[in-house]
Amino acid sequence: MEQDSTGSIKEEAQPEQLKLRAGRAVVDAMVKSGMKLGLGTGSTAIHAVRRVGELFTQGVLQDISVFATSFQTEIECEKFGIPVYSLNSQRLSSGLDLTIDGADEVDPQNRLIKGGGGALLIEKLAAYASLSYAIVVDESKLVENLSLAFPVPVEVVPAARVQAAKALEKFGANVKLREAVRKAGPVITEHGNLVLDIRFCSPVDPVIMEAELNKIPGVVENGFFTGNPPVVYIARFNGAIDVRGVQLLHEGKK
Ligand code: 5RP
How confident is the model at residue 246 (pLDDT cuts 50, 70, 90)? Predict the structure, then answer.
C-alpha cells in the first residue's frame, strides 16, 4: 500500500488484478469480428483469451478464427466454443490479423523475452505470422536490458542437450537445463524438446542474439522476440493501463 499526497492510503492493485485489467483492455481495444487471431500462453494472456471467449459467447465478436499457441490456450478456447484452427489450415494459411500474448521481459524498444511457460516455439510462429502484435504485461516485466534478470529459454532437440549447452556457453551465457515440477527430470515441451535457460551477465544485442542462437545445431527456437515490434499494454501498479508502441489496427477479413 502507498500513501498519496493527501496522506490517505491508496491500495495497490494485486498482480492478478493487473493481469486481468491488461488482458481485457487489449481485447476491447483491438479485437474485431472476422479476425484471424493468434492467442498466447501464460497467466496474463489467459485473461485476454477469456475476454475473447466472453465476447464470442455474447455474440459481440463474430466469425473469429483462432490459432492457439499451446495446450493451455486451446483448452481455454474449447471452454468457450471458440473455433481453433491450425496455421496450416486453408482458413489461416494467409496469416493472422492480430496476435495477443504475454511476455517475461520487455525492453524500452519493446523487444521481448518470452517462453517462461515453455511455449516459445509456437508463440514465435504466431507473432511472426501476424500483421499486428500486442503484448500484455504488468509493470514488473519492464527492464532496461533483456536477459540479465530473466533467463532466455532456448528450445533444443533432446540429442543436442550437451553440445548446444557448450555452444551457448561460448556466448558467455550461464546455461541451465529447465527442470520439471511434479515430474522427475527435465521439462519436455509440447514438441518433445528440452529447454536450456540461459542468462547473460552483461547486456547483449537481442536482435543479433536472436539470429545467432538459432544457428547452433539442434536449437529449434529461442526466446528473444525482436522481429515484429508489438504494441505493449502495460498494467501499472497504480491501476492505470499505458499503451506503448504503434498500434496497428486491422479490420478482420473473411
Ligand atoms: C509462455 C510465455 C508467457 O507469455 C510468458 O512466460 C509470460 O507469462 P505470464 O504472463 O504467466 O507471466 O511466453 O511461453
Answer: confident
